[in-house]
Amino acid sequence: MGRWRTSTFRLIALYTAIFALCGSALVTFIYWQSASYMTQQADTQIEWQGHYFESLGAEAIIEEIAQRISNAHVHVTFVGLFSRDGTWLAGDLPELPAGLPIDRGKHTITDLRSTVVGSHVALARASAFRLRSGDILLLARDLDEVRELRASILRALVLGSGCALVIAFAGIMLVTLRRNTRIRALREVAEHIARGDLQRRLPPSGSDELDMLAHIVNHMLDEIERLMGEIKSTCDSIAHDLRSPLSRARTLLARATLMNPGAAGEPLERALGEIDVALARFRALLRISELETMHRRSGFSTFDLRGLVSEVADLYAPLAEDKDIAFESRLVDAGSIHADRALLFEALGNMLDNAIKFTPPGGAVRIDLRKQAQGASIDVFDSGPGISPDERKAVTQRFYRSEQTAQLPGSGLGLSVVAAVIRLHNFALHIDDATPHATTGTRISVDCWPQPLAQ
May I ask the CATH architecture of the domain 10-148? Predict the structure, then answer.
């Protein structure tokens, strides 16, 4: 797509990112809520057991602790009884954890050691407080379930997010590929339409917003084609219908001129000249109309470009010499080109004809053939009055005559024919100064390779 970026990819990627963020937030919320609930349950168990042990006497506490340890199949709750100075008295916790406050509060501790074989607790909730006798009771509950839950949720989060991202990426690529295929088809048709083929229509393929837009554009193209057809038909009819009576009038004037030689025939000769100018303009108009409707490429073939340019140069060199204009050609081997040879010959001939026409005696005209990375370029230089920058686009329009050359004979259609041929080939036409910062002279260049639409 060149420099263009598909909005479909960005939009789906944005939705995927939002979905992934929301999913991660939800899993994180469940993670913390589950861990918090299990921790609260452990605290409740510790609190209940603390009240139970407080209700027993000193001897009964030791017996209860021993009975619990012997009857336990799965060690989840741990207990330890210590004297005032911290000496172990009973239970499966041999020592008070360093730094654990004896304040009846619930605290999370790590690396809790137990006398039970294989009961090394990595994470636990613990509470230590003094009994009425002054002894210290330590209660702890294993939080291994909470740790496993956290690890399970974390694994699920990583694996789920990874799978979701893979599926989302595959979905993005699939939807983007399908969307881009449709957009590429629409763009190809739109490029043909932009280059003058108004008979093309955007292909509908469904019922989404692109098809709605395609139907609207197609309806607009139908109306534009109808209006352009009516205008073209009117102009062509005028040019064709007027050419016949003008041709008959010219024939009559030519006969009258032969019958009235000398001074009496001078007005007739001037009238003949004016009719010739009008007929030339009508022929050029019809030629431009014909070129603008030639969307087919049946006349295209592959040929040697240097040979074509050499033929055009040889044809116009004598015309330049008759006007005392220095004519030069600088041609390199630019390889072959796929184009309509006759039309390209006509366009180059018009370019040289214009250059010779507007160059005064003693001036110079040159045609160059250059080879560039993209393809071949043809340049026609002249030392005439030049074309001002604000007129360079207008000179390719029909009947436009620059103020500097309005007094010279011509129809104002030569470069219009050139522009029509260049558009048909999808080449590029450039009009510049003959040399940078020059006040006179013109360079007209043709880039002989397909041009992309403006980005």
Answer: 2-Layer Sandwich (3.30)
